């Protein structure tokens, strides 16, 4: 009553506070801004992603994982370190592929979009069909395809990101998998086989891929197993067997 001007001033400030979002404070905003400036946030995984049938991310873009703007000034080696350090702490498959190797792999994938891969099990092998869909490579067990046909769900998806290929000379790769069917080292074995069969310098090895796609009646399952064993990938995954690599 004694100071109407002071009262009105206090009411205005009170209204300002009411209009601020719940949980907002100038001090909290200041601290958040300072933290962001002090600590670069390279990754933004989960932003703008949608989950498709089977729990895999639909249209998983590089921007939904990596803050591309923040790494534009980084060298290829620095980006590789950032990518590897981030995914090393996660239970998944990842890689940084040289541009030349991906070029070869990609050209061949256009001509031969599918292949049969062999995964070593305790007794024998389990076969998986890998099918390219754009830069995504979907793996489904052969037995599921035989029983469910085209509706068989993916059990592993490899995502390749060529956005930095021209400027930095690298292609980033990561994956999602159905943990009910595969563990990380099994998924890694399948991912390594993509390099083995599609990015090989041996014409005999890639010829298996060509035969599977264009002369399926001539394709022999055992040829895949033989190639896998010769490369050492099959032996390394055998339970109880110690790798001879140091």
From TrEMBL:
One of its GO terms (cellular component) is mitochondrion. InterPro entries: ATP11 (IPR010591). Keywords: Mitochondrion, Transit peptide. It comes from the Eukaryota. It holds the Pfam family ATP11. It comes from Pterocles gutturalis. GO terms for biological process: mitochondrial proton-transporting ATP synthase complex assembly. PANTHER family: ATP SYNTHASE MITOCHONDRIAL F1 COMPLEX ASSEMBLY FACTOR 1, CHAPERONE ATP11. This is ATP synthase mitochondrial F1 complex assembly factor 1. It is found in: Mitochondrion. Its main location: mitochondrion. Belongs to the ATP11 family.
